[in-house]
């Protein structure tokens, strides 16, 4: 059956205005521009932020291979690439839309100029105000820069090859209420974000490329504190072969705050803070796509970002052939793991989250045993149908010593312990932990103080005098007892009757 066809092209002004609402931040939009520079084999990318009120500009200049006139026209045309087409393994694009949609989300005038090695400068421009003025609503690009912007394009005369992307009329970046301080704050926030997105490409003695903002080199931010000696976990890389390529995963548990200097702790928090930065980090060709998400995983219900797991960060590397499986969007800001890796990732994440929770709860020393000997804890957890209870362990040396010494008043001691158990301020501890974003401290933290030394001496002498242990046996017993297992040097120096 033959069907009549109707030509139904979208109206340019309406379509572009709709594309402006895709939800890019300024940092994510610039990251899309930088992706194109990397794909063009640039070794340097310079971002220049020029403040001039509503006439402010952002300029991206790279030293990549550049484009001729036909290539530039294709790059500036919406929808010239099919996302289903096979790409080079190092290509960071997918939809052929990033340059345009990212730029339109921030500005009303996009100018791109480029120069190939041995070629001349070519320049095309999208001007949304001009498009909206055309009665036929056609898709018209303009040749050359806008009046007053010629000097920016001339920067290409000083390089062998490269590309300039120029944003002007940045109505989504600079508004009537924006002042120079807001603009500087925006630059700082963008620098932090780009330092995270491209950290694996710009870090190390031989980085893939250099990224500069207003002639200042962007500092990479490694979310995993790779190689830090106090890390609780830095697992070997695990690999899984899938239909769309190899997926690699490495699990990390960062050090507790007590193991870090103040500057290390502040830096490791990242652009969004400790709690928001936990979870999976999804990379493609070393470029970060998604930071700090549990990807909807979890048994029973999806995990959410909570304080006890804030030290857990898991790196996932996917190939660019896996975009469809992982549902990577145009902005490169969302990802969903396919069914065939969800159980694998969930298991790895469960182990990492559990390790992170223990490090957080025990302030970096989640020791449960020394060698093959378990630690004798003062508190034990009872799991019942009605919930969880916390009880004092009467076998703990400090507790059992009092019970034995107070035989005549054992009932009073038991009553006292029961009162303590029933009045543990669990909800208050939970609220204080959530509000302060750290577990409450006790007097037995850090280096041994006078109180620790006094209590240790009393229990040490009790083990020798009442239980008849030798000095070495008493020391061995205390090293298996909470909280003294944290002070091996103190225990080693104990002497009878001191």
What are the salient characteristics of this protein?
eight-stranded mixed beta sheet; 498 residues; Heat Shock Protein 90; six-stranded mixed beta sheet; alpha+beta; 3 domains; 19% strand
Question: Given the C-alpha coordinates, what overall shape results?
Answer: elongated
Number of domains: 3
Main-sheet strand order equals: 5-4-3-6-2-1-7-8
Q: Quickly give the structural class.
A: alpha+beta
Q: Can you offer a commentary on this structure?
A:
There is one protein chain. The chain is an alpha+beta fold and 498 residues long. It has 3 domains: 12-217, Histidine kinase-like ATPase, C-terminal domain (Heat Shock Protein 90); 233-361, no CATH class; 370-492, no CATH class. 33% of the residues lie in helices and 19% in strands. The chain has helices at residues 12-19, 26-39, 69-76, 98-104, 128-133, 150-153, 180-197, 199-202, 262-268, 323-326, 339-361, 397-405, 410-422, 426-436, 450-465, 471-479, 488-492; strands at residues 44-50, 57-62, 109-115, 122-127, 142-143, 162-168, 210-213, 216-217, 233-234, 238-242, 245-253, 279-284, 287-293, 312-318, 369-370, 373-374, 379-384, 387-392. An 8-stranded mixed sheet has the order 5-4-3-6-2-1-7-8. A hairpin with a 2-residue loop joins strand 7 (210-213) and strand 8 (216-217). Helix 2 (26-39) runs antiparallel to helix 4 (98-104), helix 2 crosses helix 7 and helix 15 (450-465) packs across helix 16. The radius of gyration is 31 Å and the shape is elongated. Residues 89-95 have low confidence and may be disordered.
């Amino acid at each position: 059956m033959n069907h009549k066809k109707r030509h139904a092209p979208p109206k340019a002004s309406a379509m572009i205005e709709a594309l402006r609402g895709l939800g890019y931040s300024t940092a994510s939009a610039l990251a899309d521009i930088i992706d194109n520079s990397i794909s063009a084999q640039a070794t340097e990318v310079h971002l220049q932020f020029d403040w001039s009120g509503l006439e402010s500009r952002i300029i991206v200049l790279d030293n990549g291979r550049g484009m001729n006139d036909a290539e530039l026209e294709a790059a500036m045309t919406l929808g010239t690439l099919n996302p289903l087409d096979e790409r080079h393994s190092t290509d960071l694009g997918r939809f052929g839309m990033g340059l345009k949609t990212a730029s339109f989300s921030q500005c009303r005038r996009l100018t791109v100029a480029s120069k190939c090695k041995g070629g001349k400068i070519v320049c095309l421009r999208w001007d949304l105000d001009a498009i909206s003025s055309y009665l036929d609503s056609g898709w018209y690009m303009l040749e050359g820069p806008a009046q007053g912007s010629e000097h920016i394009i001339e920067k290409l005369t000083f390089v062998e090859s490269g590309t300039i992307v120029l944003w002007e009329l940045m109505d989504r970046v600079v508004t009537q209420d924006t002042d120079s301080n807001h603009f500087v704050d925006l630059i700082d926030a963008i620098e932090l974000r780009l330092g995270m997105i491209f950290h694996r490409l710009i870090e190390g003695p031989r980085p893939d490329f250099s990224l500069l903002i207003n002639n200042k080199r962007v500092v990479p931010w490694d979310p995993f504190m790779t190689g830090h000696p106090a890390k609780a976990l830095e697992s070997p890389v695990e690999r899984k072969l899938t239909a769309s390529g190899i997926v690699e995963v490495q699990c990390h548990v960062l050090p507790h705050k007590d193991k870090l200097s103040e500057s290390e702790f502040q830096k490791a928090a990242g652009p969004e803070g400790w709690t928001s930065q936990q979870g999976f980090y999804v990379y493609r060709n070393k470029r970060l796509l998604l930071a700090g998400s549990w990807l909807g995983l979890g048994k029973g219900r999806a995990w959410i970002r909570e304080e006890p797991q804030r030290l857990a960060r898991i790196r996932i590397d996917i190939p660019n052939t896996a975009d469809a499986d992982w549902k990577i969007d145009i902005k490169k800001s969302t990802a969903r793991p396919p069914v065939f890796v969800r159980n694998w990732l969930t298991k790895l994440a469960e182990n990492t989250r559990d390790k992170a929770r223990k490090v957080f709860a025990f302030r970096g020393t989640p020791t449960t045993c020394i060698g093959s000997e378990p630690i004798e804890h003062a508190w034990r957890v009872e799991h019942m149908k009605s919930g969880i209870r916390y009880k004092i362990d009467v076998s703990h040396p400090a507790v059992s010593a009092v019970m034995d010494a107070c035989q005549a008043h054992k009932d009073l001691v038991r009553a006292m312990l029961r009162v303590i158990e029933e009045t543990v301020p669990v909800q208050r501890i939970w609220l204080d932990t959530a509000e302060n974003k750290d577990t409450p401290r006790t007097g037995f933290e850090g280096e041994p103080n006078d109180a620790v030394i006094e209590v240790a001496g009393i229990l040490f002498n009790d083990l020798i005098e009442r239980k008849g242990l030798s000095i070495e046996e008493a020391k061995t017993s205390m090293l298996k007892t909470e909280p003294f297992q944290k002070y091996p040097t103190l225990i080693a120096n104990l002497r009878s009757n001191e």
